[in-house]
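User: My advisor asked me to double-check a structure prediction for Peptidyl-prolyl cis-trans isomerase before group meeting. I don't want to rely on an old file, so could you generate it fresh from this sequence?
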Amino acid sequence: MIKKIKASKSEKLIFIFLILLAITTFCTYFIVKNKCLFVKNIDPKNITFKNPNNIAVLNAPCGNVIIELYPNISPNAVQRFVTLIKSNAYENIAFHRVIENKLIQAGDLEFGKKGNLDYGKIGTGKSGLGTIKSEIDNDFNYTKGSVGLARTFKNDTEDSQFFIILQDEPLFEGEYTPVGKVLYGLEVLKKIKSDKRSEYILRPDFINSFKMLN
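Assistant: Sure, here is a fresh prediction for Peptidyl-prolyl cis-trans isomerase from the sequence you gave:
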């Protein structure tokens, strides 16, 4: 007859601890691998907009970002933006510059295309449509969710690249051309891949689609 050996109290506690550790490790891994797990995706069809013709829907890895455009503030910039959106130019374009919880930038149509990324030049690419003049509005407040056109260090160099800020940026006021503001989806933007070592991202996330609501 085999004699059963009773586990001591300390051995039982160690066993329970190891089980809890395994569960915690698994849950942490699952959440990290599924970064979109707790992000609510907004369907624009379920929302009534005051100006539906000025609504654009950007689909990112974790869901939709709904943006209201401001043609009354920057008509030429918004026209360029809408032209590129309607031509599907932004589809599969990288979020090539990301500062965690502060700013994301995308829209390099030349060097930021999925499958054809040029890490040495990304951020300098153009659309082929030429640059447009800056439309600076000193009264526009760059609060969280504001969307603007990126440029070089000089004015009148806006083209296809745009940025969205994830926090208030008063220093941007009077410096960049505004084109709109995020109405829904800031949490989606906060999940876009970032890198604490650099603003420019290796193996970045991409825009799945970018379309006008109407």
